[in-house]
Specification:
Structural class: alpha/beta
Strand content: 15-25%
Order of helices and strands: EHEHEHHEHEEH
Radius of gyration: 14 Å
């Protein structure tokens, strides 16, 4: 059974809704188990033990990752853990143009992660279309982990 970890930080619940939808999209594939984990309950082992990983975080401040829990978690991830691992990134934002996500995508590519899609961003509360996009992202992640 392929194992997918969906790890997220959410302040208002928007990114949590996205995380649930990503997990739902991944679960709809045979032979896939999905673990949905708030980042404050996550460890590096969740990433190491997973066949594929989704990370979710909203844009904060000057278009950066949340700085007290998600950023420190992401900083623990090294290329040894991420090289060749299928990865999906997602998050919500209130303003700006998505620079935090572009920066995050480049950072993870630099560690050797295999991004299964562009970073998915949804403005504010995800609507039906946003939820559908999250489910599609989860399905892509599940399919990418099944190829291994």
């Amino acid at each position: 059974m392929k194992k997918i970890a969906v790890i997220y930080w959410s302040g208002t619940g928007n990114t949590e809704q996205m995380a649930v939808a990503v997990a739902d999209g991944a679960k709809n594939n045979d032979g896939v188990s999905v673990e949905l984990i708030a980042v404050n309950n996550a460890s590096k082992n969740n990433v190491l033990e997973a066949d594929a990983v989704a990370l979710g975080c909203p844009s904060m401040g000057d278009e950066v990752l949340e700085e007290t829990e998600m950023e420190p978690f992401v900083e623990t991830l090294q290329s040894a853990e991420l090289a060749g691992k299928p990865l999906a990134l997602f998050g919500s934002y209130g303003w700006g143009n998505g620079q935090w996500m572009r920066d995050w995508v480049e950072r993870m590519k630099g560690l050797g992660a295999l991004l299964v899609a562009d970073g998915l961003i949804v403005q504010e509360n995800p609507n039906d279309e946003g939820i559908s996009l999250c489910k599609e992202l989860g399905a892509k992640l599940a399919l990418s982990s099944a190829k291994e």
